[in-house]
Amino acid sequence: MTKHALELLIEAADKAIMQEDFDRLLEIYAEDGILVIKPGKNAAGKTEIRKAMEAIAAHFDHTLRVRQAGMKVLEAGDTALVLAKTLVSAANLPAIERNATYVFTKDSKGEWRCKIDNSYGHELLLQNNLLE
Fold first, then answer.
1. Based on the number of CB atoms within 10 Å of its own CB, is 99 exposed (0-12), middle (13-18) or buried (19 or more)?
2. How far apart are CA 66 and CA 117, in angstroms?
3. What is the mean pLDDT of residues 29-38?
4. Separation CA 114–CA 116 (nearest Å)
5. Where are the domains of the chain?
6. Could you report the per-residue pLDDT of 65-107, keeping only the tens digit for each?
7. Mean pLDDT confidence for 19-38
8. Integer Cα distance of 23 and 17 in angstroms
9. Where do the SnoaL-like domain residues begin and end (predicted)?
């Protein structure tokens, strides 16, 4: 079965994160994209996202590993929701599994750009006690 273009793009993003190729990584984001750094803390726009990614890499002693263990893409016109099982680990972080949520839109050239990068998924609701 052929992979969706967004699956390939997310795989490229994971590779860029692990190689700390932040120039390549930022190409994937929309100018006004949002990265959930941790519940309650977001980075907005490419400048903040780059600073956050650099800080995250340093926090994990430059050993961060990210990979997807399954994805579902729901596409409607120029917008797509990606639900993913994301595996994250580092030398100072035991392997954890997240149910990530990503939102992509097509830019004026028809290329997919990440608008919302939320590797925590619905866990954000739990952090605010909204599901209790």
1. middle
2. 14
3. 96
4. 6
5. 5-127
6. 999 999 999 999 999 999 999 999 999 888 999 999 999 999 9
7. 96
8. 10
9. 10-113
Report CA torsion sign: 44, 100, 102, 25. positive
Asked: is 5-127 a CATH 3.40.50.300 domain? The reply is no
Q: How far apart are CA 18 and CA 104, in angstroms?
A: 21
- The sign of the dihedral angle between the CA atoms of 68, 18, 122, 94 is positive
Question: Sign of torsion, CA 35 38 39 41?
Answer: negative
Query: Residue 91 and residue 59: Cα distance in Å, rounded?
Result: 11
Q: Name the H helices within the chain.
A: 5-19, 22-28, 45-59, 123-127
- List the strands of the sheet with 93-106, edge to edge: 41-44, 29-38, 112-118, 93-106, 79-90, 65-76
Picking from 6, 97, 26, the residue whose alpha carbon sits closest to that of residue 35 is: 26
Token pair listed for 72: 């579902």
> In this structure, are residues 1 and 71 in contact, taking their beta carbons and an 8 Å threshold?
no
Helix (H, G, I), strand (E, B) or coil at 43: strand
Interstrand relation of 112-118 and 29-38 (parallel, antiparallel or unpaired): parallel
